[in-house]
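Give me the fold.
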Amino acid sequence: MGTAALIAKNLAITAHHVLDAVVRKFGAKHGGTTVDIEGYCLRLYQVLPGPIYRVWNVNEAWACPTDIAILHLSLDGSSESNERVESRAPRLRAVPPATGQKVIAFGYRESKIEVTEQADTHHLNFTDIGTISIGEVGQVFPDRRDSSMFPFPCFEVFAKFAPGMSGGLVIDEDGLVCGLVCAGTNLADQDALPLSYAVTLWPMLRTLISANRGTRYPRGVQYPVIDLALDKIINVVGLEELDPRFFPGRSLTSKA
């Protein structure tokens, strides 16, 4: 279906078109940019070294004004005897990499899940094909590439992004997550360099969400994702490079 990445303990990001494909098929309750998953289960399957398996329920999601969706998760189950989750958040790069820089994209281009039932045993067998694609950044579009297919900040990557990789991480030369896999193209010229697109991350920082941030914060209130970065709940590099007009009332430097 697609790929997602955890950015905090109970938050993940994926491509908005991946979430939209699920919602168009199974439905959802909409409230502004909030998508409530009701009547069915939407799950993320996480495979860690060991292997350790974790299954996350997507309780709600928030649609960003680009091809990014933010997912609010709760742990449904784990193969660990101790289900206390220790998570590590990747470092996110607010602004896109420069033209000519090398980036690496990762995603699952082909995933299968087989379910077997035996007496009291419910067994899931995962078959994933993790794919890495490496290429140079081409043209960077600070506002949009066009008004129809990519009407949001994004950048070209001269690499092949296969179906199923959508929502996967795009990582720059410094090891920072600088975008998400957005789309690949099929060029008529077989000798041409492959061309794909990654969505830039900074617009998601403007999205209003209401995920619980812990006991130090009020519950059930909306706030922009930039607040998670300023409070170091998510790790974002390069906030000072953003246009402050998009973040009124916020000082774009991390709190000590």
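Residues 91-202 form a domain with the Thrombin, subunit H fold (CATH 2.40.10.10).
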